[in-house]
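May I ask you for just one protein sequence along with its backbone structure tokens in two labelled lines?

_____
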Amino acid sequence: MKKRVTIEDVARASHVSVATVSLVMRGRTGINIETRKRVEQVARALGYQRRRSRNEQHVQRISVLMRQQSGYGAELNMVESHVLHGIEDVCRRRGIRNDVRQVVFGDVSMTNKPILFPLQYEYGGVISVGVTVDDDISNYVRDANIPCVFVDVDPPSSMFDSVHVDYEDAVSDLVGYLVAIGHRSVALIDTHGASNTWQATMKSSMRCFGMLDPYWCTADATSSSVQAVLYELFQRYSHVSTIICRNDVIAMHVVQQLQHMGRYVPQSISVVGFHDVAAIPDIAGLTTIRVDAAALGALAVQTLLHRIEWPNTPRLNTTIQAALVIRQSTQPHIAHL
């Protein structure tokens, strides 16, 4: 089978950039006459055929990049699987195929263009779920004029659309609720390698409510890691009345380890999670911050289709609201004299 001639082939043979070839093939102005002629001659000689612009054709295939990192544990996979369900639901109803490619952080071989964007496929666009791409991939997507939407991660530049979760109101509701039921001493258990946004949002809201600065630590989503963190926590901060966890899996391990230590939830201490992943056993009674991950995925596809149909509209940064869900793992704090 004869290999399809790509825009990169034309650019190399013409000794110009991919962006220049793209402008020439689309008949755009601002290109030197000699350069334009050379590119057109090379394209004809190689048999290059320009694909139709995406707003002239039905989108048939999109690429979905998802991170794969064991340190985040099964809970993150469940959250992102709900995002993927939302993506797949919209794609199925619109007759669009989505190719999911998992990116392993730190593995350079997994972030090259042939793996992320196989040359035998023509992608209408890319949705990056929690994956931050490097400059090389970012420039490739831009030069190839491939629309891209970043989900729950900051895009590499302002030229890309993004979809985020707005936690601020839900966090404010949580902190206000804890203060109202007598909790003033709080510990935060974050995950290794996570962004500082969650921690900063928590601390900012606590300051607004006049709470004490929280004890902050990090843990993996494993029983042994949580156990070690809790022992250190109570040695340094014995009067903590609430533990807020970065995700529901860590919260589940916290509840289990507290019971082993003779501290029962919520009688002795309150515990709060994040994400509200109902598929995880033993967290049905967990107070948490709910994120509609499926809606996040659906919104990402809709944002991508909007960009494909109206490529010259201003960049979009769309958010959905998280919500506080109060359950049995929190109760009023009774100070011991």
Remarks:
- Residues 73-94 form the longest helix (22 residues).
- The chain is about 40% helix and 15% strand.
